[in-house]
Every structure is written in C-alpha cells, then in structure tokens.
Amino acid sequence: MSGKGALCVPSHPSVRIPGRMKGVWLAALALLGAGCSEQGVAGTETPGTSLSQSLSDAEDLRPSPGASAVGLALEVEDGAGVPLKVRAGQTFYINQIDLRATATATKDEGVDGLRKVGDFAKLPWQGLALVDEEPVLLPNADKTFTRRRFYRSAKWMEQPSVFTVQPVDARGRPTGRAIPLHIGKDDQRKSNDDFFIRRLRAIQWTKDCRSVSDCTGAKKFEEEALVEVRNARTGATWFSLSPDTRALRVSWSVRPGEDYSIPVEQVARPTYAYGFSIDVKAVTPPRADGTYAPGASVTFQLALRDGAGKRLHPEGSLPSYNEVVFGQNEPGIQYYSAFFDPTTTYYRRKHRERMLMTQIIGPAQRIQPIRSIIDMPAFLDLSNDVQTVGTLERDGVFSQFQTFPPANKLFGGAFYPNEGRWDAPVSDTWTYKLPANAEPGTYLVTVKGRRVFMGEDIPASRTIEIQVGTTRHTEPKLTTGPCNSCHSEGGELSKVLHGNDNRAACAGCHAPLGFELEGPIFVRTHFIHSRSDRFDAPKEQCSSCHLTKESIQRTSQAACLSCHKSYPESHVKEFGPIESMYVGGERKSFLQCTGSCHKTHPGSGL
Questions:
Q1: Separation in Å, CA 458 to CA 95, 285, 331, 424, 452
Q2: Residues with Cβ within 8 Å of residue 15, at least 6 apart in sequence
Q3: Of 95, 141, 493, 514, which is least surrounded by CB within 10 A?
Q4: Residue closest to 403 by CA, chosen among 390, 391, 421, 387
Q5: How far apart, in whole angstroms, are the C-alpha atoms of residue 307 and residue 513?
Q6: Which residues of 47-57 are buried (b: 16+ CB within 10 A; e: fewer)?
Q7: What is the pTM of this model?
Q8: How far apart are CA 223 and CA 104, in angstroms?
C-alpha cells in the first residue's frame, strides 16, 4: 500500500466499528496472515508491520465511542486540490472524493487527449471502451447542441486501488496517521470497500453539433476523466487534525509517487455547526376535523437548520440565487448548480446538482410514476411559481412541485440573464392548490436539499402528511422494494443522494422533463442498476426489486430501454430506432406500447 504509515488493518469493518475489540484482534491476525490479500491492489506493496504495531495502529484509528464525526468531501481539479476550511478540533472521516482531469481538442479523438496530457496521462488506459452516448436536448446559446459520449473499462477504472490521506504541516511533515481508503473493484463489492458508491469513467463532450443527432463537422471537444467515490461505509475511520495541520496529502495507488495536496484552514469558532436538517409545516390551518377540502389552497413554510438547530436563513426569506452561488454564502445553503457543473444520471456528479425543491403528491394509495412530460415553457412562466406535474385524469395521481428559487427565476435567470431574475428575493413559503376533484386520502409534502459547509457536503429531506377530504390515513402501495438488502452499511437511502428513505415521496419531483426525459424514478433506477457492475443480482431477475408480476407488465420504451441497450429489428420498424440511452425514444417513450405482449420477462423470478 502506498502512503507513509498506511495500514491495511483500519479498513477492515470489524476494526472500524466501535467497541469490538475481539474483532480488532481477529482482523489484525487475519490481515497479517493474508498480507491484506483481499485488497488485491495492483502495483502496491504492504510494508512489514509487527503484530503489536498493527494492533496499536488499529486501536489508535478506531473511533471513540460517543464521539461525533463529520464526513469530509475532498476534491481535486486537474491535479490541484480544492482548499478546505474546517472546524478546529472536530473529528472527521472521509465521506467523498471527487477527482477530475480535463483536455480539449479540435477534432474527434474520443478521449485520447487524456492519455497524452494532464493529470491522468500516466494512468493505465488499456481496455478503454465507448459504452453509451446521449445528446443534451436543450440547445446551446449559439443554437448548436451538445453530445456526450461515455467511456469505461480502462484498467485504472476497473482494478482495485487505494487512496491514502495524510495530514501534513506547512513543510509537508506528517501531523497524524495516514488514512487508507480502499475503493475496491468496478465489478465487485467487498466487505472492506470504504465507500458505497464507486464510479470511474471518462466523458467526451462535443459542444457544437448541428442537431441532437448530427455532429458532422464539429470542432469543439472537451474530454474529462472522473473519479467519484462517496458515502463512506459504516464504521469509517475517524481522525482529527492537529493545530499545525495545513494540508491533506492525498496519494492514489495507480499514481505512485505523485501526490495531491489539499490546503486546509482550521477555524476555531465558526458561526454555524455542522449537520443539516429541514423543517416543514403547513401555514394554512386545516378545517376543524384536521383535514383540507378538495380545491383548497394550502401554504407551507420551510426552515433550513444546521445540526444544532440554528436557522441558516431568517424566517420569511431565503437568499437569492446570486447570493448563494456567487456570494459568500456562509451558511452553506445550496441551489441548483448544473448550469456550471453539468450533471448526468449515473455518469457524472449527480450528487453535485444540489437542487432545493419541494413536492406534493397524493393521495397516498394512488402514488405511482408520473409519465406526463413537463416542458421548459412551464418553468419560465412568470405567472406560476408552482408546476403541476401530475393530474388524476392524466396520471392517476395528483402532484405539484416547486424549486427554490422558483423555476421561472432559477431557469429564467439562465435564459434571460439581463432581467435580474437571479437577484430576485426568494420566499421560504409556497402554496399548493389542491384539485377540486382531489381524491380523499393522505397527501405527502416533501422538501429536499443539500448543504455544503466547511468541508461537509450532505443531503437532507423532510416529508410531512396532510389529510385531504377524510380523516382516514391512507398508505402507499409500493410495488418495489425494500432496497435495504443492498442499500445498507452506509448506502442507506437515508444517506445517498437526497437523504430520503421514503420512496413514496419521489415521483413528484421525478417527473419527465422536456429537457431531461430520464427524470422518472423507474427510469433512473433501471438505468443505474443496469449499468452498475457492482449490483449483485442478475440484471434480468426483476424480482430482486419488483414485488409483483403486475408491476413489470406496463411496457413502454422508457421501461424497457432504460435497461436494455437494443431491441429486435421488428421493434425498430414498429417503434423506431433507439435515440436515447435512458428512455429509448423521445416523448413517445412513456406511452404504453402494447397491452398484449411482454406479460412476463425471461428470468424475472415473477
């Protein structure tokens, strides 16, 4: 293993969990005997270590019972570490690492430029393959379009590797123990992986295509290689920084001898605490029986707080978009940032999109995916802050959502930069209008967001319920789940992406958008799990997630081609060629293509 003082022992789960001293002994003995063979790290060496030293190091790195640790997000851009400002005296663990290397080109060379210049040029690129392609549906400012091509299978993307994080002083001398972080292999999850999510890939962006399907003659190419590991597994190694620590030296086993340096500034008494929570309440009082009438307008209010319960904004208002994105933003409130750091489902930094958003959906007993497409004009309409995304007549369920700032300011500010929409004040209240024909039942109101504060990058969500037309509580009837057979040990739904483990509270925000058709949660779930080689179950075994035979019988291009990369020639003639890696076609992809075929799925287990 590379990195001064790096140890195999602390990454074993039995060592990392507080209070299991018997596990520490067994882990140390097993790892010494096996030479850390489970890691299988290519091109690294494990320094000789005595049994007593291994046990001592394991004990030193073991978390202290009762302490509270904060997950740090580390970032390196083209070889330069993004500076960290952290609270002095705090206990930490590494929760997220983002690395990015870039190159530009004037001809279509795939991502070959990354092999020749830049931070990743010396990595082993053997085996690289183009695996997916998708256009950006919105045109660029000059009326051209952008195409994205996604590459995987290079040796450095596939093989197991280790990051080592070493605190150092101003002269580069160690100020604490090195923290080894095993990111594992691309195609296999292991008990000693230190992160739940591991995604390594390269992307080519063609910026001047003639149309969404024609990049002939293009001359503006950008290439990037990405490392994304996040969501530390249960029992992550905790550490604190001595007062003389000025940087974190980060080494990666596939780049031996070439360290990154992330500058660190320690702040003794920051204004806010770490942590993030969201409060939501209905401001409009219900009727005497505690219910709201169909057709009623109901106003809600949110409060964003730090981990100590302190408000991150004054009651009654939120900061403007410009204040959050371009101002000091001391509290760490986040708004949608993909204008500047584009995101792509599964392939690129979706955790950094950071949308603050709310939805209502109901009644609970009717909750299901929304397949009606919401177009950009609805987002830009200054007369409506709230978008209606689902209706009972059209979708079988009612749903509305609102972004913060409202979409007409958020997206309108990007489309009309001279109108001052990004400077507009933002309220912490909003109003949903229940339909006059609202079906009685329980309706869910959710707010989700993200906070980035002094090295911590975390999500939060909060769902409350209101009763509409009846005092009887109704329950959602989910046809998939429960997800925790895989999403555990640090990968719980309460921790990944939105920090939301209430799967009934997803469909409203995840409606298909005219400029992002892959919005529905079934599309994203199919796509992510079909592309991930770390998903353990056979891809065709629908019963791994689906609970009923009926739940796999609604056939559409979006349902099928979010998993499958091809379909028979007869289908091409009937339904057209595949135009999207996410949904197959375009707007027609959400229509049910047949009610008579595909009543089962080979190998589904249902």
A1: 10, 32, 13, 26, 7
A2: 9, 23, 24, 27, 28, 58, 61, 62, 235
A3: 141
A4: 387
A5: 34
A6: eebeeeebbeb
A7: 0.87
A8: 6
CA distance 259 to 7: 18
> Tokens at residue 272, please?
């806010």
**Which residue is listed with tokens 């500058």?**
263
Q: Are 393 and 364 in contact (CB under 8 A)?
A: no
Domain boundaries, the chain: 9-267, 277-516, 523-606
Q: What is residue 535's predicted lDDT score, i.e. its pLDDT?
A: 87
pLDDT of residue 57: 41
Which residues, at least 6 apart from 114, have a Cβ–Cβ distance to it below 8 Å?
101, 102, 103, 120, 121, 125, 202, 223, 224, 225
Coil, strand or helix at 597 = coil
How far apart (Å, rounded) are the C-alpha atoms in residues 406 and 424? Answer: 10
Q: Are 455 and 70 in contact (CB under 8 A)?
A: yes
CA distances from 563 to 63, 114, 524, 540, 583 (A): 41, 29, 10, 9, 9
Instruction: Name residues of the chain where pLDDT drops below 50.
Output: 1-67
The answer to whether the CB of 339 falls within 8 A of the CB of 324 is no
d(CA 134, CA 153) in angstroms, rounded, equals 18
pLDDT at residue 599 in the model: 77
How many CB atoms lie under 10 A from the CB of residue 526? 23
CA distances from 178 to 7, 181, 251, 405, 455 (A): 8, 10, 10, 42, 19
Burial 398-430 (b: 16+ CB within 10 A, else e): bbbbbbbbbbbbbbbbbeeeeeebbebebebeb
Q: Are 343 and 353 in contact (CB under 8 A)?
A: yes
Contact 439, 257 (CB under 8 A): no
Instruction: Give the residue among 576, 580, 539, 587 at the shortest CA–CA distance from 562.
Output: 580
Query: What confidence score (pLDDT) does residue 24 get?
Result: 31
At 36 the pLDDT is 36
CA distances from 588 to 194, 296, 508, 559, 576 (A): 42, 34, 20, 12, 10
Give the pLDDT confidence score for residue 536 in this predicted structure: 82
Gyration radius of the chain's alpha carbons: 25
Asked if 472 and 480 count as a contact pair (C-beta separation under 8 A), the reply is no
Which DSSP state fits 439? P
Query: Taking a C-beta distance cutoff of 8 angstroms, is the pair 230, 524 a contact?
Result: no
Q: How many angstroms separate the CA atoms of 416 and 423, rounded?
A: 12
HEC string of 65-93? CCCCEEEEEEEEECCEECCEEEECCCEEE
* The two three-digit tokens of residue 114, written as one number: 């990354």
Tokens of 58: 């394991």
**Tokens 């309440």, residue?**
281
Residue 459 has, within 13 A of its CA and on its CB side, a CA count of 25
Residues 136, 145 contacting (CB under 8 angstroms): yes
Fold of 277-516: Immunoglobulin-like (2.60.40)
Pairwise CA distance, residues 83 & 81, whole Å: 6
Q: What is the pLDDT of residue 598?
A: 80
Rounded distance between C-alpha atoms, residue 375 and residue 436, angstroms: 24
